[in-house]
Amino acid sequence: MSEGQKIVLSLGTNQGDKLENILLCIQLIKEKIGMVTQISKVYQTPSWGFESDVFFNCAIEVESVQCPHEILQSALSIEQEMGRTRSGIVGYESRIIDVDLIFYGAATIDTEELKIPHPLMQERKFVLMPISDFNLKWEHPIFKQSIGELLDNCSDESDCIVVQAVDFM
């Protein structure tokens, strides 16, 4: 029997002990959002959209009974609990953790505070590469492409280097 909706979250960090940040975030997601069913490898990637230290990124598949807006609020709460502060500046900045809701099953949502699927996922190799570890049978509801096809068509040429596999289930 299913416990909820399958969702994919993207995690990123470029401050402090990056691997420890990812592991702590996954633990908090398990406690506050739902059951983690898959974890991608952790990738080292360059910053995207600004100059900074490299990032560690990964994706996780979660089964959750929360609605998308509740997941967004839970993700923001986890970021805050881990010490993320938002400066209010326009643009990208370094962060201890970033949790993005990439997709929520086959749902499409377009509100001021939440857009699903994530509107820039197809442009970000650091999002697509970790999700491709899952071999999901998911199709982007707008572009009608699989994760592999989105990755093949992605114009982002950044290097995504595997740092380590995570065995955290």
Q: Can you give a write-up of this model?
A:
- With 169 residues, this protein is α+β, with helices and mostly antiparallel strands.
- The chain has helices at residues 18-32, 68-81, 125-132, 147-152; strands at 5-13, 35-39, 42-45, 55-64, 98-104, 109-110, 115-116, 161-164.
- A hairpin with a 4-residue loop joins β6 (109-110) and β7 (115-116).
- α1 (18-32) crosses α2 (68-81).
- 35% of the residues are buried.
- The mean pLDDT is 89.
Compressed to H and E, one letter per element, the order equals: EHEEEHEEEHHE
Helix content range: 25-40%
How many beta-strand runs?
A: 8
Quaternary status? single chain
Please state the average pLDDT score: 89
Distance between the termini: 20 Å
- Unreliable stretches: none
**Protein structure class:** alpha+beta
Layout of SSEs?
Elements: E1 5-13, H1 18-32, E2 35-39, E3 42-45, E4 55-64, H2 68-81, E5 98-104, E6 109-110, E7 115-116, H3 125-132, H4 147-152, E8 161-164
Antiparallel strand pairs: 1-4, 1-5, 2-4, 3-4, 3-8, 6-7
Describe the structure concisely.
The protein has 169 residues and is an alpha+beta fold. The chain has helices spanning 18-32, 68-81, 125-132, 147-152; strands at 5-13, 35-39, 42-45, 55-64, 98-104, 109-110, 115-116, 161-164.
